[in-house]
């Protein structure tokens, strides 16, 4: 007897993931498609939107082929905020410009700050302009590629592009829009027309819906390509980190979601609007919710770089070596700013630093230092969230980096805070599937995905890390002039 099910797809930085889930939360099938982003120039990070759709088609076909399940609805999410511009026929005009890892729009940020007022932008939009702001990247395209921009008629982000391809609907979720600073008014929760016309003249903004609302239904053509049933609903979707938070139930005031992935993301749900120049204030994925968020430009990306650099190593072997290295990595200290840094530094010219190297240090020490560096950065973000008025009562961890145990243990030891781990750690694709399940019945994260384990800090390790954290906080100011000069040379 076939089971009722929903399907979730998430387009991430390094891979696309799909999951087929029974309506009671049981994972029936999952699949992954790995990909890479393009870096055509220093600070530019892009991706061909054709890859997003091709991998979605492939995932849907694999997940549904021969499955003894009736798919009732589809959920989508993706990295963001991204900027994909198309012409009137929905032909992409250029590769999509990715989220805060792309730092190209510095000149546009300076210009818009001067024209609109830096604090007025934060007052109206909730966040200052930064490398995360999609509106500044639209301005970059308008400035640097004016002929192309003149042909632009639609704005998509990752999940909304999938919605368009699946249903024909042109919509965007409120959360993604709230990261399109300075185009979205966080108080009115709508596009702010005077600034959309200034920044993106002639480009119609998509109608807005909440992430879990139905955007449309699967068309006959999309059904033919994907193997999905025609006519089933598709959610509006959202940015992957917010879908991940939903997947583990971290959407109540006081919750903080830590997403362990290629980058590290922190989403703190707050009852009322809070803003801070070192953080991002957004509306949440669900109606009536707000978030104060942070994001690091790298985390797992650094461990992946080390694995590739070492050549013959794998993650399990490096984790074992890092375990043997012990707290403090035998006197190594790393800054994880290998692609600049987002929050709380907001410094796209920051760079990675490894301090204390000697000829006796090993691969395990370097790998341990990388894990500890991300943990120090998490603590820096947590302290900034609480300084801004956040009230963190529970931390829930999710993502591929939670597997293996060492990384989450280091983060708890450095921060002195416990972290809940849920039973299912698939992340955003599972959260998108949960939203889809809510369209066709009752579903909750607590029922779908109960707490499996809590990582608790070791007081002795926390005490050892206290001095190292102080050194970590001193290292960036002490080296900033040098690394900024090196960053300028890299961009020539």
TrEMBL record:
GO molecular function, one term: kinase activity
Keyword field contains 4Fe-4S: no
Gene3D superfamilies listed in its UniProt record: 3.30.420.40
InterPro entries listed in its UniProt record: ATPase_NBD, Carb_kinase_FGGY, Carb_kinase_FGGY_CS, FGGY_C, FGGY_Carb_Kinase, FGGY_N
GO terms (BP aspect): D-xylose metabolic process
Signal peptide from the UniProt entry: none
Domain of life where this protein originates: Bacteria
Keywords: Carbohydrate metabolism, Kinase, Transferase, Xylose metabolism
Family as reported in the entry's similarity comment: Belongs to the FGGY kinase family.
Name recorded for this polypeptide: Sugar kinase
Taxonomic source organism: Streptomyces albus
């Amino acid at each position: 007897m076939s089971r009722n099910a929903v399907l979730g797809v998430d387009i991430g930085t390094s891979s696309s993931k799909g999951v087929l889930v029974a309506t009671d939360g049981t994972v029936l099938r999952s699949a992954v498609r790995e990909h890479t982003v393009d870096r055509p120039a220093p600070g530019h990070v892009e991706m061909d939107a054709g890859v997003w759709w091709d991998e979605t088609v492939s995932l849907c076909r694999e997940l549904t082929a021969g499955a003894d399940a009736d798919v009732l609805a589809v959920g989508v999410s993706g990295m963001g905020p991204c900027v994909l511009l198309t012409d009137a026929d929905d032909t992409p005009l250029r590769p999509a410009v990715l989220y805060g890892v792309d730092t190209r729009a510095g000149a546009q940020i300076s210009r818009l700050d001067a024209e609109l007022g830096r604090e007025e932008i934060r007052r109206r939009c909730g966040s200052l302009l930064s490398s995360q702001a999609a509106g500044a990247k639209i301005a970059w395209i308008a400035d640097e590629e004016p002929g192309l921009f003149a042909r632009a008629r639609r704005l998509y982000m990752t999940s909304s592009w999938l919605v368009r391809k699946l249903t024909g609907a042109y919509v965007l979720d409120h959360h993604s829009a709230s990261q399109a600073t300075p185009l979205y008014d966080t108080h009115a929760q709508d596009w702010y027309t005077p600034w959309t016309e200034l920044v993106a003249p002639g480009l119609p903004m998509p109608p807005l819906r909440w992430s879990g609302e139905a955007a449309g239904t699967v068309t006959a053509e999309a059904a033919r390509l994907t193997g999905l049933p025609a006519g089933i609903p598709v959610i509006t979707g959202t940015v992957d980190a917010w879908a991940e938070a939903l997947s583990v139930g971290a959407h109540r005031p006081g919750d903080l979601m830590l997403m362990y992935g290629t980058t590290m993301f922190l989403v703190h749900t707050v009852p009322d609007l809070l803003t801070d120049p070192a953080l991002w204030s957004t509306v949440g994925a669900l109606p009536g919710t707000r978030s104060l968020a942070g994001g690091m430009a790298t985390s797992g990306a650094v461990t992946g770089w080390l694995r590739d650099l070492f050549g013959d190593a794998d993650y399990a072997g490096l984790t074992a070596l890092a375990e043997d290295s012990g707290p403090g990595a035998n006197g190594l200290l790393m800054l994880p700013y290998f692609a600049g840094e987002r929050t709380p530094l907001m410094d796209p010219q920051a760079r990675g630093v490894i301090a204390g190297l000697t000829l006796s240090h090993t691969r395990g020490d370097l790998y341990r230092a990388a894990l500890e560096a991300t943990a120090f950065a998490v603590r820096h973000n947590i302290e900034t969230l609480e300084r801004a008025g956040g009230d963190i009562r529970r931390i829930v961890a999710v993502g591929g980096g939670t597997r293996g145990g060492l990384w989450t243990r280091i983060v708890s030891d450095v921060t002195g805070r416990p972290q809940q781990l849920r039973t299912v750690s698939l992340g955003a694709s599972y959260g998108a599937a949960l939203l889809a399940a809510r369209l066709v019945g009752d579903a909750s994260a607590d029922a779908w995905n109960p707490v499996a384990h809590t990582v608790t800090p070791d007081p002795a390790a926390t005490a050892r890390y206290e001095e190292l954290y102080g050194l970590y906080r001193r290292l960036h100011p002490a080296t900033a002039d040098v690394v900024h000069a090196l960053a300028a040379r890299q961009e020539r």
